[in-house]
Amino acid sequence: MYFPEESNSGLQLIRPRILPTLDRHFRPAILANRAFAAQATVPVDVALERAPGSASRFHTRVVPHGQPEARGNFRYIERWLKFLLWSRGACKIHFSGPADIADQLQRYFRDTGTGRFDADIMGAKIYERAFEVIPCEAEQLPVESERTAPLGKHWDGCRIGFDLGASDRKVAAVQDGKTVFSEEVVWDPRAHSDPQWHFDQIMDSLRRAAAHLPRVDGIGGSAAGVYVNNQVKVASLFRGVPEHLFQSRIKNLFIELRKAWNGIPFDVVNDGEVTALAGAMSLNDSGVLGVAMGSSQAAGFVNPEGNITSWLNELAFAPIDYNPAAPVDEWSGDYGCGVQYFSQQGVGRLIPASGLKIDLGLGLPEKLLAVQQAMAAGDERAEAIYETIGVYLGYTLAHYAEFYSFRNLLLLGRVTTGGGGGLIVQRAEAVLREEFPELAIRIHMPDEKEKRHGQAMAAASLPVTTSPA
Predict the structure, then answer these.
(1) Which of 273, 300, 335 is the last residue of a domain?
(2) Rounded Cα–Cα distance for residues 224 and 245 (Å)
(3) Are 55 and 156 in a shared domain?
(4) Domain CATH code at residue 224
(5) Contact present, 414 and 368 (Cβ < 8 Å)
(6) What is the C-alpha separation between 148 and 243, in angstroms, rounded?
(7) CA distances (Å), 397 to each of 394, 411, 444, in order?
């Protein structure tokens, strides 16, 4: 039986059957949405337009005016659209539904800090067009137009793959499909404001890998953020770089690196996409949602046809906990978003509640290492952290299944390293069995090397090359 708890601006929140060990106030998005849907009968249709000729369509319902549950209409739609924005991407939201909700949405994206963050990122930075909420009739909505394409899986010749995270960068040298060298280097790019420093650090890793190959035919990269045609649109890795230097150097950083390598094939994509690609290749299957729990949360999707989409899949910013007192993301200022649950930030956040005596002044990588060491020593307090993340994941996978057609989940990233990764999977599977038995989701974790270096190795397969015979 479910037990109603406090509401979020009129939206009823539902206490889960399986509570996370260290977070008794977790209120999963999936449970609130399902409870709300049981009362909703008024249709709402939206089209999320990324560019002319590229749009995603969605349908939901809200509660008729006059009913008590209608107090939750705006909060339900706002959280639902927030997820859609960061999973699909859009600079224009065409909205067919009650006029008062359309008006509230326009004011939300114009007048609130979290709404303006989303509008600015989606509009000016990613799609370089004005962000708008456009009320319209259902028949005026743009038609759905999704673009898909195959990604990677090219192994001929001599290749370098790299993966850039916020706490380390990884590189792999691959010759005819065989990894001949891989390396992980600790770094903290967010603290550096000089674009040349970033260029030099990445170049250093590429040169180290090149030293193990007779030649370099192509370079593929995986990096946290949003990348379009090798241009950096949004990336937390470069948050320390002033805006004018971002525009003059960082935006075209990888184009500059390609020139330094004599213009060879050079492709950089979001690290989540490469996570999903690594999963599809290792599983020899499609319908894969990849989630990397590293310094942030990365996600990517290979659809049931085996292709990637033009979606953003930036699930670090997607809300999964509707408790208004949920932890707040330091960048967007929003609450309950995935990054605070499925990353090193999530681990660090849970340390005080666990009772582990770890210096809270340490950096996140050092905190995670201390938790992993406690886990290896059989400390129940460390186990409670991983159990909590596992419960979060179980409810969140059911939420993701409302938006993605996937049958395989691949988990990667430093948070899953060691015995804690297995405990995360165990608890997530228990939640799925107990709460969502209708979902047939298989959770996969690769071996330890693949967890940490799999993205760099998969990235090496991105470019199409014309390697010498």
Answers:
(1) 273
(2) 19
(3) no
(4) 3.30.420.40
(5) yes
(6) 32
(7) 5, 12, 13
